[in-house]
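Structural prep section.
Before we set up the soaks we want a predicted structure of the protein with serine in place, mainly to decide which crystallisation condition to try first. Input record follows.
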Amino acid sequence: MTGPEPVTLVTGSAGEIGANLVRELVRRGDRVVTVDLRPGREGSGALAHFAGDITDPALWNAFGARYLPRTTFHLAAVLSTHAERSPTLAHRVNIEGTARLLRLARDAGSAANPARFLFPSSIAVYGFPSRSRKAAAGNVREDEHLDPATLYGQQKLYIERLGAALERERPGLDFRAVRFPGLISCDTVPQGGTSDWAPELLHAAARGEPCAFFVRGDARLPFCAMPDAVRGLLQLAGSDRANLRRTAYNLGGSSFSADEVIARVRRDFPDVRVHRALDEERDRIVASWPGAVDDGAARRDFGWAPAHDRETLFSRYLIPGIRARYRRTRDEPSVAEVR
Ligand code: SER
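Run finished without errors. Recording the tokens verbatim:
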């Protein structure tokens, strides 16, 4: 073959979504190249892995010498709590790093054959000034309440708009975004997010460890099972452009308050020990995010239909999956502290 090889690029491949997404892409036969700060996983099925910082030009020079990103899933990011605490780093990674990747993708595409760029945006793009406004809002649609309270939410919204602007400016880029709710996986625990209270509790319960719970009992967010989230992202990636009427789509999830999550986890792990350790800053972030979103546009335009509802999320996915996971690995380190 002459010239760089067309591939599917996944950044943040070792993270929560990435690990699941790469497995699925490889299973479907994509030629996948991964990038992450962490080393590649043995047996991942990726063609190649680049370990390093997405803001490092040398990494992209080495990548570009061999590969052409025909489709990019750009998952590498500094999550919300971490971004609030490290704003300079968050700007470098979430804005500068992403802008570089957008240009790289656009250069890999043409008017006749644009390169696809899939961006995981977030419910963090929405912002409510008070708990009462949040409670009154109901299911939030894509164009409502776009007044993010966090740097992270502002960065997600900016990249949604930058992607759309670059696409309009010059042909070559096909930019698509999903706004994920809180994601919850039986395999992995996120690091540095604010919706982490639910996955942290579940994983601590399964390990028989106490959990320091950092939000108020009435804090409410929508949550989506990781396999549903990955399926949604792939559905959007694979859909015909002519059917897509928006740049960014809500993916929905079952809406749970913190107390409801604790009660539900307790049904299967009655010995779970929850220590209330309110973190005002993180609780305020949750209070600014919607408790539920309207995902009608994703359902109509690309057939989004999550397999799990609020009961099967636990009974068919999380509880059996997490029991199996900790039977397999008894030596997993404790839930990581937010750095
Ligand atoms: N779940 C993410 C976080 O908590 C939001 O996108 O940071």
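Observations: DSSP finds twelve helices and twelve strands in the chain.
Flagged for discussion at group meeting.
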